UniProtKB/TrEMBL annotation:
The name this protein goes by in its record: GNAT family N-acetyltransferase
Residue intervals of the N-acetyltransferase domain: 1-162
Alphabetical keyword list: Transferase
Organism annotation: Streptomyces arboris
One GO MF term attached to the UniProt entry: acyltransferase activity, transferring groups other than amino-acyl groups
Entry-linked InterPro entries: Acyl_CoA_acyltransferase, GNAT_dom, Mito_N-acetyltransferase
Keyword Iron: no
Pfam families, per the entry: Acetyltransf_1
The keyword Transferase is annotated on this UniProt entry: yes
Amino acid sequence: MLIREATTEDWPAIWPFFHEIVAAGETLTYPTDLGKEDAQGWWFVAAPNRVVVAVDEAGVVLGTAKMNRNHMGNGSHVASATYMVDPAHSGKGVGRALCAYSVEWARTSGFRSMQFNAVVETNTRAVKLYESLGFEVIGTLPEGFNHPAEGYVGLHIMHKAL
């Protein structure tokens, strides 16, 4: 697997799984009816932020990550990231590779920590992955997320010092 800078030419490969994940409404706080053009604008953030894709040896996009400054001003030393893995490639280490890549990006970019603002507590695979990479839950917003099947569940705030 190769992780490389994403380009707008990658969007047609990203959009189908981006749309599937967002429309399901189970793991992200994005509007479930987010359209293709708006989604591309939300995902492709300007430098110094970064968007990458994980691709296989044939160049197939397996997943993507958006890495960005979490806060501005006096909080601009805290990074964040969002990940999406094509469900067809789930369980192959794509999410772990993207997360590890983003941690290293944040560290080498001079950030002092990473914070995930809204990890849905029922997304136990993501929580377990982040914890295995050194993140910890530092707080939970009770009933901060209206899950389509589970109802109101908590949103974890997760943190890792760099």
